[in-house]
Amino acid sequence: MNKHPGLIGTKLGNTQIFEEDGAVRRVTVIQAGPCVVLAKRTEASHGYTALQLGFGERPDKRVSKPEAGYYKKAGADKAPRVVREFRVEPEVAERFEVGQTIKPSDLFSAGQFVDVSAKSKGRGFAGVIKRHNFRGAGTVGHGTHEYKRHGGSIGQNMTPGRTFPGMRMAGQYGNKRVTLLNLRVVRVVDEDNLVLVEGGVPGARNGIVTVRSAVKKSSTSAAEAG
Predict the structure, then answer these.
(1) In b/e form, how buried is each residue of 129-138, taking b as 16+ CB within 10 angstroms?
(2) Which is the CATH superfamily of the domain at 1-33+105-137+166-226?
(3) CA distance 138 to 176
(4) pTM of full prediction above 0.70
(5) What is the CATH number of domain 35-102?
(6) pLDDT, tens digit, 9 for 90 and up, residues 98-117
(7) Which of 190, 143, 198 is nearest to 29 (CA)?
């Protein structure tokens, strides 16, 4: 489990930037934060350690009175659009207080590796060629009809006489949570709360994403990358 701190944000889109040496970096622009610490979970009270963060703003008419009281007590001026919990180590939780605002520069820097999670674009019901990259059936002649994009056999006749679980077939494609690991932070624009990440990020524009320090990279990886 990734217990590194992170931020909630939105995917703004893709662009390219030029480094001082002329190199071109294809990046995804993420508006990461600012996020407000709404609550802290502790081992003594809840059995685990986490930070509850809020991002964005929600119209007052969409907020119930109990919710409004909870957010006001936490020090948030407006009810957040998104609320997420980030499991962290106890020493990380001690660095932040309820009501504190976290900016990208508090957690990220150029050259650092991050993990980005988001819900991928929903593509509806798709066949095996689009969903699983099948080649299609080879029998397109000899009087064959409507079989060019089929998946072929899915099981056995007598032994064991069933279809194995996990068989790749047509079905719902996309619209599920996807995490990309070890993406490099190219630039942090703190005044605009922007994090520029090299490569692509799941989801559509304006979709909600979470960015946190990479779980499979050591703390020295960022320094080596720079």
Answers:
(1) eebeebeeee
(2) Translation factors (2.40.30.10)
(3) 32
(4) yes
(5) 3.30.160.810
(6) 888 899 988 999 889 999 99
(7) 198
